[in-house]
């Protein structure tokens, strides 16, 4: 079982982004994803600068993957995605079908991101024929469904040719919209957004009327209000054939979380509790086939 560090889902200043990745070059993650996946208006780094940063980070020996937008709304967005896909050297995570097609047209391998709707092994096989070498399971699927997909992939003769990655820690990316919810909250126009997302480095919490963490608003992206935390399920994942557990960056304590995940997987610790590092309640409901907000506390899982 290996660890990956997902792309930053929030609008952070350029220096913060560069410092963040430098801090994690010596961490326990084997794969680092980087690039803007949420909103094309966010330009802390331009596509060419993401590529330059990725090539620099690749000297560390870790696998560096460029991640593309999950929603393309304009020709300029497509142009930026093309620039990433045509980088000529680095693996690309395609987060929508246009990027996948751009990679397939070049006969280049790619990773299918969690926003691609891969719900069965037949889709996996078709995309594998186009160049897919790894897929990130859609976040709403559960362990039983994943087991069925991988079993069918075995029957189709493709399981040994692809890697499976699971979004294991972080606020779940649930939906994307052409409307920017953060600018709506601030009562300003999206076209003149003033990059107000930067004021919310971990998104904008939206509680239910009962005061529960329900959703998290991140520009055009809707995230889960709770933070998915699947470390206690790592052995089940390993038995199913999951290759990578993805940790999604947060403004604070990402390093400590990576360390805890690594310690448990390497069997140097059995402590899966990271409550002191969480900015919102934990959840693992989707993985267990229940309501996404559900969570079994660590003390009750054994």
Question: Layout of SSEs?
Answer:
Elements: E1 2-5, H1 14-23, E2 31-34, H2 47-57, E3 63-67, H3 75-85, E4 91-94, H4 97-105, E5 110-112, H5 121-130, E6 132-136, H6 143-155, E7 163-176, H7 181-186, E8 204-207, E9 213-218, E10 221-229, H8 234-240, E11 244-247, H9 254-265, E12 282-283
CATH H-level superfamily title: Aldolase class I
Number of domains: 1
Mean pLDDT comes to 93
Which outline best applies?
globular
Largest beta sheet: strand ordering = 1-2-3-4-5-6-7-11
Span between termini: 21 Å
Order of helices and strands: EHEHEHEHEHEHEHEEEHEHE
Task: Say how many strands there are.
Answer: 12
Short description, anyone?
29% of the residues lie in helices and 21% in strands. The chain has 302 residues and is of the alpha/beta class.
Structure report:
- Helices cover 29% and strands 21% of the residues.
- It is built from nine helices and twelve strands.
- The chain has helices at residues 14-23, 47-57, 75-85, 97-105, 121-130, 143-155, 181-186, 234-240, 254-265, and strands spanning 2-5, 31-34, 63-67, 91-94, 110-112, 132-136, 163-176, 204-207, 213-218, 221-229, 244-247, 282-283.
- An eight-stranded parallel β-barrel has the order 1-2-3-4-5-6-7-11, surrounded by four helices.
- Helix 3 (75-85) packs across helix 4 and helix 5 (121-130) crosses helix 6.
- It is globular and about 50 Å long.
- The two termini are 21 Å apart.
- The relative contact order is 0.15.
